[in-house]
Specification:
162 residues, mainly alpha, elongated, 0% strand, 6 helices
Amino acid sequence: MAGETETDLGKLDNMSELLMSGDKLRKLALLMHLQEAQSMRTIKFRSVHHQIQSLRDSRKTYESTIAILDEAEQLKGKLPLKRKRDLQQDDKVDATISSAINHLKEYAHLSVGTACRTVPSFNLRHEYLKKIRDFMGETKKALDAIQPSFTTTAVAMIMDAE
């Protein structure tokens, strides 16, 4: 059995193999939510109120997953348009911002996939996804606040340092 685990892990040597498309992640999140709701029917709770609260928490986890994926899809529209300037640094700034946005989108998909596949407790998964959503929101705000003149100067300073 140890050999099977090693070969399975050997197949996942590339991080991009862990990524799932947004549609597949949405289907996985819905399937998990439905399975959790179904399994809660068989669990004996202290009261109906506790059962209802657990169902609501499961629904919040599903909604949080969908919200993260929606935010990741909205990032596509944030890719900077080519500015028509003669400065060479502008292209590097655009490439840097585009790269950061693509990394953030990849991070969202990887994090949601990891949460859905490896975190069995919906309470833990909910907390994990909440932190991811907060991080993405802060990063998105930081990317929105970037001013082209500042980043052009920053890129020029980095190029001088190299």
